[in-house]
Amino acid sequence: MGDATVIRDEDASNPVAVRFDHVTKQYKLFKNDKLRLLSTFSKRIPHDTVNASDDLSFTVNRGESLALLGDNGAGKSTALKMITGVCFPTSGTVEVHGRVSALLELSAGFDMKLSGMENIDMRCQLWGLSKEESKELIPEIVEFSELGKYIDQPMRTYSSGMRARLGFAFVSSIRPDILVVDEALSVGDRKFAKKCRERVNSIIANENVTVLFVTHSTGTAKEFCHRGIVIQKGKAMFSGGIEEAVDFYTAS
Asked: Which ranges does the record mark as transmembrane (predicted)?
């Protein structure tokens, strides 16, 4: 395997938002945890390898909305994880230009001992927002989450739906350059899910925001995206307009 390169900056003026250039992401599969542990000390432990991304190349220009279509296990989420910096390529080059916000595991990263409000405050600081920015943003996040008085309760008392709502409210409020969405729009009840879809639509309508949308719902892909890439077994099999991409995906 060749060398891997990751180029990541907050330059939202770059006409390219995301570029994958011959990216392969390889995972080692071991029969059990003991062998996995031993493999950290020896290269000779038997294992299978699987390419979650296999020589994957695509470019997303600034302001585009792109759907990554594919069945479960096709490698869509692995591509997103490399964009968000959760995992790294085995070979090839991943470029990301601009601040990335991800609607992935919405309730991840919260401190359950702290209240909802304290968690929002902490996340604003982690994002490097100024006191003025936070002051402006926090009421908007609280209002969107519809948590009412629960916002001052410890998050361990929240249901999973309440946590997801707060996660969505935060992530979708912080005006990213690149928004990554992974089937996260079915948050809470039907009314709140509709509100989430409207929020994503309004983010997409802002021409400077680049959106990458992972889904196997062709209806959702058509609703939100102009372009589509079909991924099968880690490879990009088709790239084009969303209608053509959906046709290719449903026929394959």
From this structure: none
> Which residues are within 8 A (CB) of 120 and not within 5 positions of it... i.e. 6 or more apart?
138, 141, 142, 166, 170
- Please state the three-class secondary structure of 156-170 as a single string: HHCCHHHHHHHHHHH
pLDDT tens digits, one per residue of 132-186 = 989 999 999 999 999 999 999 999 999 888 888 898 888 888 878 898 887 656 6
**Do residues 47 and 39 touch, judged by C-beta distance below 8 A?**
yes
> In this structure, what are the phi and psi dihedrals at residue 197, rounded to the nearest 5 degrees?
-65, -40
> Concatenated DSSP letters for the chain?
---EEEEEE--TTSSEEEEEEEEEEEEEE-SSHHHHHHTTT-TTS--EEEEEEEEEEEEEETT-EEEEE--TTSSHHHHHHHHHTSS--SEEEEEEES-EEEESSTTTT--TTSBHHHHHHHHHHHTT--HHHHHHHHHHHHHHHT-GGGGGSBGGGS-HHHHHHHHHHHHTTS--SEEEEESTT--SSHHHHHHHHHHHHHHHHSTT-EEEEEES-HHHHHHH-SEEEEEETTEEEEEEEHHHHHHHHHH-
- The answer to whether the CB of 189 falls within 8 A of the CB of 159 is no
Q: Tell me the whole-structure pTM to 2 decimals.
A: 0.80
- CA-wise closest residue to 204 among 227, 188, 187, 237: 227
Adjacency order of strands within the sheet including 65-69: 100-103, 178-182, 210-215, 65-69, 227-232, 235-241
Contact 171, 103 (CB under 8 A): yes
